[in-house]
Each structure stands twice: as structure tokens, then as C-alpha cells.
Amino acid sequence: MATDFAVCLRHFLTTHLAGLRGCSPSTVGSYRDTFKLLIAYFRDERSIPPGKLTLDCIDAAAITGFLEWLEASRHNSASTRNQRLAAISSFCTWMQTCDLQTVGQGTFGLVAVVRRIPLRRRVCRVRILLGWDTWA
Fold this sequence. Notes:
mainly alpha
């Protein structure tokens, strides 16, 4: 039998993102990949198998641990980390609109852990994208 997390996640990806919001297949795929990584994190780092992963397991401490794991173990950049956080935050926001009793208290403050990308690196990326290879 599917857990409450699995049921909600499937509904979020298929009905909400792909159906109601009309997100592209690439966007849905990116969100799906975030949750595949989150499930792998719970399985490998917290010893919670996917069949036992419930909404109660997902709190701010778990998400913070997941984001740190992305950077340390998978060597993700701050922008990739923040994209993963945005997908999880979107899921949590959607959960709050659906059924407030199933959302853990820890999910309300997730946007506070966004890590800033240093300004110089952002400017460098923009300059490279525009084909400007000098600072003059």
C-alpha cells in the first residue's frame, strides 16, 4: 500500500503540476528528479526505505540535511540546491492548500534556508552567457 507521501507526491506531479498548472514535461521531470533524490537521501542517509517514507518524516531538519547532502555528497552548486529547495517548497505550499492536517509544522519555514549565490559569480555567468569575456 502506498504511503501518504507517495499518494500526495503522485497527485502533485500529475494532477497539480501537469494538469492544473500546465507545467511543461521538463518542469515536471525536474520536480520528479528532486523527489527521487529526496527519497534516495532518506533511504541512504536516514535508513528510511521508500515504502515507509511518510509526510511525518519530512520536516525542516530533514530538508536542511538533504540540502547539505546535495552540496557535500553530490557536489551540487548553490543554484542547483536552491532549485531543489524551490521544488520542495512548491510541494509544501500545495500541501498547505489541500489539507492542513497532513502538513508537518516544519514545512512552513523552508524558504528561509535558501543559500545566496555570490554576486560576482552571478555577474560572471551573465557575462559569459552574453559573450562578454572581459570586465571592461
